[in-house]
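WARN retry 2 of 3 for item q-0093 after timeout on previous attempt; input resubmitted unchanged.
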Amino acid sequence: MDIEAEIRHLKLRVEALETSVRSAGAGGFRRRCRHKRAPARTCAHICMCAPARTCAHMQTVQADLSAALVAVAEVRADIADIQTAMSHDFTALGIGLAGLHWQTNEQVKSTRSEIITKLDSLQCEMLDLGLRIDRLLEKGDM
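OK item q-0093 returned
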């Protein structure tokens, strides 16, 4: 159960990061350049008012976006690692159950054989006792 909770937590973190990335990207395109001459989408390439430099706020947005993408990639890698570990655990569990099944079958066969042997022995003894009782009754009648 702890692994399932961890996966849910990681998925929630991914969704939160993706939401923040989308909202940061959407907000950046609606704003104008700090110089108020060009829309932000123009500033994403090169600011019209400063031809050789990109706008400072776009650099910040791009840095935040890059950091968020790295964080999303890390979370996805963590999820993949957990899924791989769970897959290995389930495979090991299946192998363990198969071994337990085989061992249980062997014990059942052995126990069944012992029970049949004892039942045969008891039946033979019952027949012997029946014959003895019959002989004793015959001797008593004489």
